């Protein structure tokens, strides 16, 4: 799993952790504080969530939650290492849960049984959870998480349409809606449903349309205005210089007239080109920020080195379809060379 893909999944899960704890695990938290632990083993694996929890009933314990997208035959040993680490340092009772969010059937063990050692953690398959627990929430983050659950009698097509309709109705602001659609597409990969989601997005015209975005239009308009003004000034100056030079050879009056005509023509052409380029740059930066956040914005330094309008348009279209920043890097490099 790529770092970017993993990051989007963890951010989405983090947004619904409170609901998982209260509704699925039935733990009623009065207060909690994060416990940061990194196992100092070869992989230095970081835990997904470890909280020091006090419940409304007065119980105090460490709550450890992991999310697993593949069947790991050594998962029980990994969880046991966490148990040892937490109990040794914090001297707290530990409750451990692993939520399985993979597409294959769940078949990894959740216990270790040896002659003098017995260990067990709770293993929950998200496909055993009714999707309606999250789908009919008023929080987009919870709706998105429902794609990992059991659709029951809805079927994939009906469920995807209902999810996208709810996101469209609840999230009116287009850039924010684009962010949630992107999260749905990534989460859908865990269930092998990305094609169905992408098809539904296209049918419902939910794709983020760069040309229709207000900020892009403003950027393009401002870019055209500035580019045209600058191009005209430069063109007039060049035209006068060329006209004077030609005038010395062919006659001052004729040279000035031709020079001014050529200068205006060149100025308009250069001004329009600069304006379109500036508008594209501002629009590209906006969509990179919306889809990929700060990681996407880092590509702007490379993109600013591209002058060709056609190449910038190609990059703009590719950003709308790209699933990750890494997909864009090769395209950008090929257009810079």
Description:
- The strands form two sheets. The protein has a five-stranded mixed beta sheet with strand order 1-2-3-4-7, covered by helices on one side.
- The chain has helices at about 5-25, 75-90, 130-135, 140-145, 155-170, 175-190, 195-205, 215-250, 250-295, 300-305, 310-320, 325-335, and strands spanning about 30-35, 50-55, 60-70, 95-100, 110-115, 115-120, 120-125.
- The protein contains twelve helices and seven strands.
- By secondary structure, the chain is α/β, with parallel strands linked by helices.
- The protein has three domains: about 5-130, Trna Endonuclease, Chain: A, domain 1; about 130-205, no CATH class; about 210-335, no CATH class.
- Helix content is about 60%, strand content about 10%.
- Helix 6 packs antiparallel against helix 7 (about 195-205), helix 9 (about 250-295) packs parallel to helix 11 (about 310-320) and helix 11 packs antiparallel against helix 12.
Sum this structure up briefly.
The chain is α/β, with parallel strands linked by helices.
Strand and helix map with partners:
Blueprint: H1 3-24, E1 29-34, E2 49-55, E3 60-68, H2 75-90, E4 94-100, E5 111-114, E6 117-120, E7 122-125, H3 132-135, H4 140-145, H5 156-170, H6 174-189, H7 194-203, H8 214-250, H9 252-297, H10 300-303, H11 309-321, H12 325-336
H and E order: HEEEHEEEEHHHHHHHHHH
Q: Kindly name the structural category.
A: alpha/beta
Report the major sheet. Answer: 5 strands, mixed
Q: Would you tell me the overall average pLDDT?
A: 79
Question: Roughly how many Å apart are the termini?
Answer: 30 Å
How much of the residues is beta strand, in percent? 5-15%
Q: Which regions contain 5 or more consecutive residues with pLDDT less than 50?
A: none
Count of helical stretches: 12
